[in-house]
Design brief:
The protein is mostly helical. The chain has one domain: Lysozyme (Orthogonal Bundle), CATH 1.10.530.10. Helix content is about 65%, strand content about 0%. α4 crosses α5, α5 packs across α6 and α6 packs across α7. It is globular. The protein starts with a helix and ends in a 7-residue tail after the last helix.
Length: about 190
């Protein structure tokens, strides 16, 4: 009888630990939904795509700093942040303001919208925008020659940075996951 109670206690503890881990992960992924949705709406970018970039760039950690000086949820670099602040006519902007989740998501979503418009003539602007977001415009210009200029399959096939290819595929896959969950969709 005593062994049975011990077994039940172990199962209850394991169940509680699993439920706790699930809750923490769910909370971590959902805690910035409001700012993601607001930025997506303001800059007319699909909310699932913005959330997928946040997932990949920072794992939803607002205070994270990147190795190349990127800041925050969407890992924005200073030149892009200053471009956003100038376009939005923000007086007194400081790069450290990007440690605020709302500010960072606004700047990153604005930048993502700008990149998406740059590649609006392609069959999948998100693939090109994500590659630009990750590797920079100069690399995209190397990869989008001939049919790859508008055909995202050819573009991805010609990509010479395996890390950028993995990045684009991972973000698009996560975007599709959030789409399936109907993130940001109103009925």
């Amino acid at each position: 009888m005593r062994g049975r109670w011990l077994w039940i206690a172990v199962v209850v503890i394991i169940t509680d630990v699993i439920a706790g881990i699930w809750w923490v992960r769910h909370w971590q992924q959902a805690r910035h939904d409001e700012v993601i949705l607001a930025a997506a709406k303001r800059y007319n970018v699909e909310p699932a795509l913005v959330k997928a970039v946040v997932w990949r760039e920072s794992s939803f950690k607002a205070g994270v700093r990147g190795k190349a000086g990127e800041l925050g949820l969407m890992q924005i670099r200073e030149p892009a942040a200053r471009e956003w602040a100038e376009a939005e006519k923000i007086v007194g902007f400081s790069f450290d303001h990007l440690l605020n989740a709302g500010t960072n998501t606004s700047a990153g979503t604005w930048y993502l919208a700008k990149l998406s418009r740059r590649y609006s003539h392609t069959d999948n602007p998100a693939a090109y925008a994500l590659a630009d977001y990750n590797a920079g415009r100069s690399h995209v210009l190397q990869w989008n020659k001939d049919s790859a200029a508008t055909n995202s399959s050819a573009f991805m096939a010609g990509m010479t940075f395996p890390g950028t290819k993995r990045y684009v595929l991972a973000v698009q896959q996560r975007r599709d996951f959030y789409r399936a969950q109907k993130f940001g969709q109103t009925h």
